[in-house]
Amino acid sequence: MNSEKLKADASWNIADVIAKALNIRKDVAIRLIGLLEKEECTIPFIARYRKEKTAGMDPDSLRDFASLLEELRAVQKKSETMRKTLQKQGDLDPKTELALLSAQSMEELELTYAPFKGEKKSSLANRARTLGLGEAASAILTTPNKTNLKRWVTKGTEGRATLSEVETGVKHIVADLLSKEKATMDKVREVFQPRHLFLESKLAAKKKKEGDSKQDNHKSDAKSSRDEQHKYQLYYEFRCCVNNLRSHQVLAINRGESQKYLTVKLTISKEAESRFLAWSRKYWLGKVTKQDAHDLLKSSLEDSYTRLIKPFVLRKTRSDLLKKAQVEAVEIFSKNLKRLLLTPPLRGKAVLGVDPGFSHGCKCAVVSSTGNEVLATDIIHLNSNTILRKIKQLHTKHKFDVIGIGNGTGCREAESVFSQFINKHRDLDLAYCIVNENGASIYSVTEEAQKELPDLDPNLRSAVSIARRLQDPLIELVKIEPKHIGVGMYQHDIPDNQLKSALDDVIEDCVTYVGVDVNVANEALLRRIAGLKKNQAKNIVDRRQSAGNFVNRQELRQVKGIGEKTFQQCAGFLRICHDGLPGKNTDEPEPKPSGSKRKMKVSAKTRSKKIKLDADLKPNPLDQTWIHPESYGIAERFVASLDLKIESLGQKAFIDTVKKAMYETGLNRLAENLSTDASTVQLIVDGLSQEAGFRDIRNEMRRPIFRRGVTDLQSLRVGTKLSGRVTNVTEFGAFVDVGVGLDGLMHHSDSGGNWEDLRRSLGPNDTVQVSVKRVELQRKRIALRLVQADLCQTAFR
User: Which of 20, 274, 412, 530 is most buried (CB neighbours < 10 A)?
Assistant: First the structure.
């Protein structure tokens, strides 16, 4: 069989595979492959500015596509490498090449290549090949009715001295070949579906024995051991169809197995095994009439299934289960983080940040309303008789509006003290909020924190971080490694690189979704913008500090390292806000006045790129919207067609006229009139409908809870109805802050029977009405039952 025919027989189209796996159209898959690989576009850019090419796929779906594309490209590359290696070694026979070309996963490639690895030379099949029985195996497969194995018997040669030894060696080679055949692998994929496999787990015999021994000898140790084992009690006698396994079950069982509390095994249904073996006999033995050849091939088939195929299926199933569970855990983690990052900012309020503690006291920092200045720091001891007076002195001098208390050790006690202060001084109109402090202490010792707050002790930096993350969670949380933020499910069981990659994507999505003012954004925020790398973000800040604020988006082209491709990818997410026009944030540093003109120095390198820049750049109102510069011409034609001036953008009459044109003409007709696509027109209309004055789209999300009093855990009673905020959502339920210093768990079975639908829309900061189902004071656990959910709906553009 020639190479071209082999490739034709084994070929699989990457667009076909992805389209089928993700249930999308093939033409969409082809276009998206082009955007990612040929045009090198980022996910946020594609999601917002290339909707017409992706049929409106959201960022999460696009990331799934990109991940699968990368995985399949790696399979193709690995396959080619393996083929070249085997060809060089002289081991590339047609069947092996066909198997390598047909493989659609790394597992299939490894199964095919395993016999040829150096460390696998001792396999049964390879030992038989070294005896020179490869030809005999090939003959028994291709011409079974004419082959006589006696001709390969060699007296005095170990492994070939008798016909029985030759048959054994041939059986091992044939079993190996059959397990790698394309037809076999196709049938394996067809027959051994998840519904035919079962996962079983039991309490490890060793742990059970240890528990009994400790119970006899050391009661305290026995209690500790039982407490450890208790978390896995659901899986002591557990059996479930793989098709019905939940991700949290897989991760819990894997953790229990790694800690040696559980023993785990996979089984295949008798029905699936019988079906596969029946097909194998018909496919391989259907035309074999010679009895000894028939018996040998039948034995080879059974050996191939028992020793090679079945273990491969079980290993791959276990691997797929883990991979799927990790992907879903990352998705849950990402969803929670996304909602947390999009918590609305608390603008124009000076905040007292409190990092609670006992022995070393509560670290306190008063931060200005812009977050740019630390007004005061102090350490307050909870058991001090003068604590309320010290808080009053801080407020008298610095007039903070809100108190943000970290939720770490000592939170409950600090909350009680500050609540007492607020109740005593009601005339001050103060409120406090519990702030997720995860990662604050880690941030406080980073190089970035040292650069931002060089004169502060690291313990006090964490109090500043707590205050700032209340003022603008997005700006502050992007400085922290995502895994330290503390939301999600089994995140510590996820490989670091997988978690970091996925969550960096979430942060990038959130930053690009909100958009940033290039004249006030810090370096940490800028490097999260799609298309910008660390050096480019630094160069933007350096350029701003040396030459003054950017007046026009086009000025970004003058920044070192920002070429045409980078400009295309990042420009739509960087805003330039001016006085009297939409997007102006009065709480942020004053940008350069809108009417100013500034002569720009154009370097020789810039001139050599033939970038057309005006010598005197003027502000462009469109730079404040999410309309991309590539669409400015279309936007200007649309505005001109309505007899409007772009300078009136943001005014009510302007917005009314734009909306009226959209309503009367319709999206598709407008797109036709402007010679563009409907999704671009929708973006333009949305941008032109932006109201004057500061508008942060995060305000569509839920704000954190602000309190003026405090409730005790001991005061909770079964049946009590409470209002709370969701803090974390997992596959098995949601954690809810009901104001008692401890989050309660609303298990999915207590969600009213619609958990799957609810889980897709529920997220941090959503309000829920719950009733207390159970309170366990010693174990500090609260079980809640859902009464009503007030969900916040939002979508990325």
Answer: 530
